[in-house]
Amino acid sequence: LDEAGAREGAIQGMVTEGDRLFAVTGRRTEQITRIVRALPGFLGEMRGAGDVIAEATPDLRSAVRSLRPVAPRLDPALRALQDMLPEARGLFADLPATLASGRRGLPPGRRLLENLRPALDGLYPALREILPAVQFVAEDPGFVTSTAANLANIGNPYVPGPGGTKQRYARAVPMIWNEIPAGFQQPLPTSRQNQYPKPGSLDAVGKEPLKAWSCDHLDNPQTVPVIPPGTGAPPCLTQGPYEYRGKTAYYPRLERADP
User: For the stretch 99-132, what's the b/e string if a residue is b when 16 or more beta carbons lie within 10 angstroms of its beta carbon?
Assistant: First the structure.
């Protein structure tokens, strides 16, 4: 009792604060009642969320393990992103003017395309015919470059002329062989002609004999002697069919492009 009497002020303060607490609680009884009534539903939802998290835990752990190798790179990436922020702000600041220009320019562009539609409708069938030829040329770009190089080699040579002028001439290497004459009734047995060389055949020049279209003429009479005499002809090796754009044949069949 002596100790309690010594702390009379503290006890009186506790009683006063307790009275205030009960007074506030009394004034908010309705709110407290609503909270108590809502607690079971809230706890039920928390329990359901806990079950979902428990089920997802293995997936979350797997995702974390997958992110671990990438984690060291995140810091440099975030720093680079931070360095880009000023430029990004400038970009977004310029966007309104760009969008305004687009709103002014797009309607005329749309009208232009609508006016071009009749011309494009007429051009579309022609493009379907041209596209297969372009695709075939693209299969063997070496043929195009070698042809262009040969043409340039023929037309570029010159010799100095009087008065500092250039006298141009055509430079070419003529081929003299036994198949130069025209009017053969049937191929010579030394012929190794191939009307449809496989794309990429030029890459084999100097490495292996060029493939012939057919070897059915080897028993034909040699009506013109071999030039130069005594050289003969290389072995006849047929090219055979090859695949082009999913179809196998002896020569490429260029078909109209699909719509």
Answer: eeeeeeeeeeeeeeeeeeeeeeeeeeeeeeeeeb
